[in-house]
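Question thread 4412

I'm putting together a teaching handout and wanted feedback from people who do this every day. The idea is simple: show students a protein as raw sequence, then show them the structure tokens that encode its fold, then repeat with a second protein so they can compare. Below is the first pair exactly as I plan to print it.
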Amino acid sequence: MLITRLSRSVRRVDRLGLSLALWLVLSVCLLPGAPTQAADNPPFASPDFEITWNRTDKQVAGGQVSRTWVWGPAPFTAGLEEAYEEAPGGKRLVQYLDKSRMEITSPAGDKASPFYVTNGLLARELISGQLQTGNARYETRAPASLGVAGDADDTAGPTYAAFQGLLAVAPDERDNSVQKAVDRTGTLRDSQAEFGQYKVGYAHFEPPTGHNIARPFWDFLNKTDQILNRQGLPTTQRLFDPVFYVTGLPISEAYWARVKVGGTVKDVLVQAFERRMLTFTPANPAAFQVEMGNIGRHYYQWRYQTSLPPPPPPAVTACADVPDGTNGIYSLLKCGPAGMQVIIRGPLPAGEAVVIKPTDPAGAAQPASSFIVGKDGLLDARLNTLTEWAQGLWKFEVQAQTSKKEAVVRVLVEAPKTEPTVLLYPNPGKLDQELTFNFVGFKPNELLTIGLRPPNGRVLTAIGDIRTGPGGGWLETFIPTRDVPRVVLEPGIWGIRATARADSNRTVGISFNLLP
């Protein structure tokens, strides 16, 4: 990943009584990339663990695909040697991730087999209280009192222990609706009055365990999507192959529950499988309605009686969900396509040196950039993004070197634009409101002519030239009452257009409404 610091200059050009401040990108400084492994996460303990993770989750971490995690963003433990009777020397290599535990029981086995790396029967152990230390060897413990889903302080959703009474075999219920809801203690109630609106039924019956699988989970388990093969090349295949490789077989029916997630109580469908707990949250975006529970963290805490740091917050996928900056420092735009410019602003002492440290969505720290606060006491740090930036939520740590003021600003980087595009915030705007024009999709360092058209059919007038940044983007703000002479300042439909000087076919413009 690359980040550059912008120098800027201003050109004010008057045409037909108009003036508009345009910033010219003068210089860029390309910096080397960083590994995708977050600095505070251990590396994979085995290349085979990493290959297994890469198949489904590497592209999630990099933003190339939008779907839920199968394993989690990274391991949260180093490799561990855990007792297992059939493993060489009675111990096997394991490593914990949010959603599971990876294991290699037979190091001399066939590495091409999907079962060379297995993931533990964690749900079965947590529900039963039987900690497995061999194919037929167990340690007896109390079933886990942890909630199967939701926030750590949730008191409404069912615990693993509550599922002890929910494992009895069931008749074939294919095409019938899910009928029951469950509370914290495992008590069942009819679900139709509370949850019938979702019209969720069963799609598959699994005879070996005598349990049905709810339609959202069955569709998820049979999903075809882009994955990475063992050579690291993208290809389209079944996400789960064999179908129960990741989850194991179903060991309960599906039940509705009320669960606190992210501080909000939500309707959640839960179902226990041998290795995982699956959840379906209708209120989530479609790509994230079905998710794997954080059973890897739950199991580690149960097994080792260790309080763990909380899991990372859910992935931010919508601009409206990007949190505000802290300590009065903010990004002018909270989201936008890779290749755009990012402007970070906020009040700081005049003349103070400021360091901004970016971190990519995978948690990898990127090289820092330095800025000087202007005489007006306003930080106005302009950064280029590049089209190859990972999509997802980027973090920018702002550190003032003298006052020691610190802030965190987050920006959601979205898919790059392949054709010239202009985005305006807000639209409509007001005559006394700051407007932000975000031109993207041009070539890197491309010279553009900018034209502005007032209302009442006046001619589009060239007002100046700018040069895009290394990501092919240019961003500018203006306040009409400040930057447009009053003789032509009026509400109505305005227009702005950018055209490449080297190729007039590379052009884009939009109309925007200025309200009084």
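The second pair follows. I'd like the answer to focus on this one:
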Amino acid sequence: MTLRGLLFFLVIWRLMTATAALGGEFPLLLHPDGRLKAVLIDQTPVPIETDLVFPAENWERVYSISQKSFHLTGHQSEKAGIEEWRHTGVVENVPVRLTTGIDRQTGGSQLTHTVKTDTPVQLAGVYLRVDMPVSVFAGGSVTVFSPVGEARAVLPPTADPDSHHVLLSAGQRVLLSLPDKDTPLSLTFPPSDSVIVQDNRQWGADSYSILIQLRNGALAAGDSISSSLGVDTAGTWPAETAVITLSERDHPVSFTGFGGNYCFQYDTPATDFTLSKLASGYLRTELDLAAWEPENDNENPDDWAGPEENPIARNPHLQRRLDLYQKLQKQGSPVIASVWTGPEWLFAEPGRGFWTNDRILPAKNVPEFVECVTAYLLFVRRVIGFEPTYFSLNEADLGIRIKLSAEELAALSTRIAAAFKRHQLKTGLLLGDVASPRGLDYVRACRDATPDPAIYTAIAFHTWGGASPDTWRAWAAYSREIGLPLLATEVGMNGSDHTTPWVFNWHDYALNEAALHADVLNHAAVQGTMHWELTPDYAVVTMRDGGVAAHPTRFAQLRHFFNLVPPDSRILLAEVSGNANVKAVALAGGTRKRTEFTLHLINLGGSCEVTLHGIPDSIGALTSVITGMDRQAERGKTTPVKANEIRLRIPGRSLISLTTPGLLDSL
């Protein structure tokens, strides 16, 4: 890293410290609502979850945070190091308030819980539940300690059909010993008269639970229960060697590049910042129809002139959009223009506002919608000479914001394609642009209902919620089947993450975001991706004190992905064995004179050895670039390639890119 680059990131780090410090890599990894998700042992995440549970009398009904019985109403990160989440809910028709927290100042190894109610609640009790997957803990032991002794049991690999109880005891500490691991895990809590260890497979859940009773029986009016859970993660968890085998795919896949969305909160210096720092292969933006035609220009949908008055004078917002389109155009990358919603007069129930989902477009207004889209694009072409590469309706399958059946979208797309052809617009149509990887059936139905499927020039999906490798591969297979390139037009973890913005500062979030990028490329074999977003929305960059602050880890990871793409790239097949915490994606390309290559390794666990086979011929050495908690896009050592393979050790909880010298300067 150059001195200029080092100073740049030091400034960014200082700007981000106020929030990022509380979201650092502490030993307890959390869900957005403050529940424990996993415990880091020697940098390896071990899945252990917590929940507050309120069973009704006789356990006829059970209320808990994980079952959405409570709503998250507030979050607070205090300078003293206490991070808290506040929840409210109704238990047995009575309002109950919860506070969950983590004490960061003690090393982030203690959780706190408070329960309050102003009205009596008839319950069997209140419990802190600790859940552990059978796949990790089967065959291990659990020991419950109390002042008068201890009770021990083995967590059964096979469920006992006669009893789901593994152990019942009083206690104040539980020691978990994992099978084949010298890694005792200690849980401490205030003395409880009842600690139940049970096997949940009887109810179809592949887990064990420890139920720590915080209260036996009902809650009285004005009751307040406070408890804590300390987690001691002392021990080692040696990471297995990751063996990565590279090969050419049976069906070669070209890769244009990583890219991003500039849809919302685009009118800040952050847009110029990310456009200048990231080499985008694709770009996506919003086509704001409400700004273009807030009132119907006339009653003739065949009149393509658009609003008679100067639309920019009527709505200065249009000028800001035009400025953005020009900036995107100058990048020289394909641009997707997507419609979220339209002017209110188009919809069945006008006046409900931009953020309303499931908007219905009446059949009588479909021609007006087509006119609105086409006239806007003609205006943009006339004023700035810009035509988007692709057009789409955003997430019509889910109704964000316009809801259409697959057949309705097919009919609308047919009308739009005809209008584009009539007016000589070069913009192609995306098939899909669906809300998640689970939208493939909708995409199939839409294409099957389209009289001329040739109107579509690419397929698109969003990654929200993630998917299994088989689901990703199904998209790749469909892309090959119909002969269209596949695009991931919104790459992000969960669509609701903007409602819990503190997660953007967690290192665990950044690593899982990087792993998602790798899975999409390696399994779905897309031609391009678009990160959501490259504006302050979703906080990969933010505006602070009038300047731009990039999130140290998340933005540095994007620099790896965006800027280390070889020319004329193709996606190699990267098969990983031996270590499930390591993800990989490989890109090869270059020029006639020189082969270029990049392998991205996302290590979700501890430091480990890596053996890499199948490196393309003519590559003599690879240089590492590393982003982790304590370094951002830092150039590491160069490792020679011998007989198309290398062996090296990679750091834990990091993104490591191995690349050829010709690409390093692009960082």
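Top answer:
Good format. For the second protein you could add a caption like this: The first helix runs from residue 3 to 20. The CA atoms of residues 6 and 480 lie 44 Å apart.
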